[in-house]
Amino acid sequence: MQLLKNLASVSLLLLSSGNLVKSNAIGISPLKEHESSSSLSEPHLRHRQLQKWCPDYPSNNNIVFNITKETIENTKILFDLLLLVTCSESGPIQDLTPEQKEPYETLVCWSDWNDQTLVAKSKTSTPACFALFQGTNSLNPLDYLQNANIFSARVKDSDCLVRSGYKNGYFTKYYEEFITEVDNCVASCTGQCPLFLGGYSQGGSIAVVASIDLRHYNPTIITFGAPRVAVDSHKFPCHDANPQNHYRYMNQLEDEYDCVANMIPDFNGKHMGTSLILDDTNWPIRTGGINDNLSRTPRGFGPHDRDLYRSRVDEIFVRKCYPLPVVSVADD
Ligand SMILES: *[C@@H]1O[C@H](CO)[C@@H](O)[C@H](O)[C@H]1NC(C)=O
Ligand SMILES: *[C@@H]1O[C@H](CO)[C@@H](O)[C@H](O)[C@H]1NC(C)=O
Questions:
Q1: According to the UniProt entry, where is the signal peptide (predicted)?
Q2: Three-state SS sequence of 220-280
């Protein structure tokens, strides 16, 4: 009975994980001395203000690591692609305008009844390959079941147990075509193109499964508001996932944290990757470190909003202050 209740709350939680916060609800952080207080209440105006100057770096021994300009630029490309992989909103990629396709050398997409995956190659001076996985499709109730699936399964040839639903979201009927596209893309650069895997919410969890299967390419994983995907197990410690290369973003809005990234019950799940907490200043970014499995409270639906992630990634990108310092949450 308790289990049923838990299941019901998980599905409810994911059912309501759509766009709950409108952009005007984005909280404004306390102003720094050298900011003018007048026009900063509009997020798009804050971009312009912020462009003029970069905040001071925290004291050097507080910085755990820096996120490079190249990683931020690729994070922005990845987020733009993430918006295309949600079939319910953008439609098939064949319908994109030439302007929408312009930034990509290749752009391929597959769908089955409840999953969608996209592979693209960027046209930047150092091109990269991107694979994006769709988050929960808000028009497809069956897709919620992928999140609520409490069973676990091993990712083939690996030491990782993961939630069955996310594994199914990766090993789709178009899996072979997907692999061929990724192989071709990575091979299309001299040496190898770097590979970025990512997604929002459920899509982020599927990207982690992908990173285990594609570990021979040493991919970088960038996820936003993703729930726990690996299952804690002595027999399957999951060394085949690389948490060092996983930027696991979660939003904080006022005092609340993304409820999906900090989901309870977690059915023995564990978070991998380096947690990165986005807030309204995004300077410095805070981290709980590698394999930060904490369930932060209080939790809220507001911080799970995809548009909030989008505006914060955009803000970091538009501000162009590189590299981006990351400090430990312990330094708060
Ligand atoms: C991070 O970057 C800043 C600015 O370039 C630099 O002063 C600092 O030493 C770097 N810290 C680390 C840990 O890389
Ligand atoms: C991760 O966190 C969850 C929720 O707090 C907990 O149930 C689980 O045991 C933790 N797993 C590990 C490996 O620490």
A1: 1-23
A2: EEEEECCCCCEECCCCCECCCCCHHHEEEEEEEECCEEECCCCCCCCCCEECCCEEEEECC
Domain that holds residue 93: 2-331
Which pLDDT band holds residue 86 (cuts at 50, 70, 90)?
Answer: low
Q: How far apart are CA 325 and CA 310, in angstroms?
A: 20
- The token pair at 261 is 């990234």
Query: Which ligand minimizes its atom distance to the CA of 262?
Result: 2
Instruction: Say which residue, 91 or 313, is predicted with more confidence.
Output: 313
Number of domains making up the chain? 1
Stretch 3-23: mean pLDDT: 36
Choice from 6, 152, 160, 232 to test ligand 2 binding pocket (greatest atom count within 8 A of CB): 232
Q: Are 291 and 246 in contact (CB under 8 A)?
A: no
Beta bridge partner(s), residue 162: 153, 230
Q: Which residue has the tokens 């190659």?
A: 121
Q: Residue 326 — φ and ψ, nearest 5°?
A: -120, 125
Return the CATH number at 112. 3.40.50.1820
pTM: 0.84
